[in-house]
Amino acid sequence: MKKNILIVGGSSSIGKKVTKNLSFKKFNIYTTSNNNNINTKKVKNFKINVKNLDEIKKLIKYFKKEKIKFDYVIFLQGIIYSSDLKGYTEEKILDILSVNTYSIIFFSKEIIKILKNNSLNVYISSISGLNGSFDPVYAASKSALHGFTKSLSKWMAPKHRFICLCPGPVKGTKMFNNFSKKRKVYHSKNNPMNEPINSSDFAKILINILEPHWKHANGSIISINGGIY
Q1: pTM for the full model?
Q2: Which helix H or strand E contains 8, and what residues bound it?
Q3: 178-221 residue pLDDT tens
Q4: CATH superfamily of 3-224
Q5: Could you say which DSSP state residue 180 is in?
Q6: Using the 8-state DSSP alphabet, how is residue 112 labeled?
Q7: Please, are residues 124 and 76 in contact by the beta-carbon 8 Å criterion?
Q8: H, E, C per residue of 194-212
C-alpha cells in the first residue's frame, strides 16, 4: 500500500527535488505552496499562505473530509532577511517568526489529528539555530524548533516520531543564490568539505530519513553541515 506524504513548502527548491526523487509507486504525494508552481499531475498541490492559520485549518478539514491520513510530513517553509538586530523592523520580526516558527507549531498541532500510527514529522532548522548567527532573529526562529522537536518526540512516540535537520547553507536554494559572491566563497572556504551541500543531495537525505531504519533517530537534532563546529 502506498504511503501518504505531505511536503509543506513544496515549491521550494528542496521541495521540488524531494518531489522529483520520491517514488510515485511508493508514495501518494501532497504538497503545499504559496503559488501553483508544481509541475506534475502526479502531485496534489494546495495553494496556502502558511501565515494564515485559517487556511491551515481549512486544509486539515479537507483532508479529514477526504479521509486522508499521513505517514510522513516534511516542513520546508522558511524565510530569511540576513539582517542584524538593529536592521529589523517589528513587521520583519513578526514575519520571520510567523513563517519559520509559528506556522510550523500551529500546522503540527492541527495535522496531528490526521497522522497515521508510526508517522514521522521532519522539521528543517539551520546551523544558525545551533551556532547563532549575524541574523539573530532568524537564528531564534530556527532554534525554537529544537525544543519543539525534543518535546514532541518525548511525549508522542512511538505513535508519532519527530526529527529536526540542521543544514548549513544549501547550494541551489533561493537563500544561497541571494548571497554575494564573497559570501558564497566564505561558506565554501569555511566548510571542511570545501563546499556546502547542494539541494539535490539534501533532498536525498530527506528521502532516506523516511526509511524505517531511522526510527531510533526520534527526537534527534541532526547537523548536516560538513563538519562546521
Answers
A1: 0.94
A2: strand 3-8
A3: 777 877 787 788 888 888 899 999 999 999 999 999 999 999 99
A4: NAD(P)-binding Rossmann-like Domain (3.40.50.720)
A5: -
A6: G
A7: yes
A8: CCCCEHHHHHHHHHHCCCH
